[in-house]
Amino acid sequence: MRKKGGKMFVFSAKKRTIVFAVFLAIFIAVTVAVFTVKGGTEPTSRPQGKRTVVLDAGHGGVDAGVTGKGGLKEADFNLDMVFRLQKALEKEGYSVVLTRKDEKGLYGDGDENFKRADMQARKEIIRSASPDLFISVHANKYPSSDRRGAQAFFDEFNPSGKALAEAIQISFNRLNERYVGRTFSALSGDYYVLKCTFAPSVILECGFLSNPEDEALLSDDGYRDALVEAILNGVVEYSAKGEHSERGKVS
Question: Which CATH number fits domain 52-240: 3.40.50.2000, 3.40.630.40, 3.40.50.10320, 2.60.40.10?
Answer without folding.
Answer: 3.40.630.40
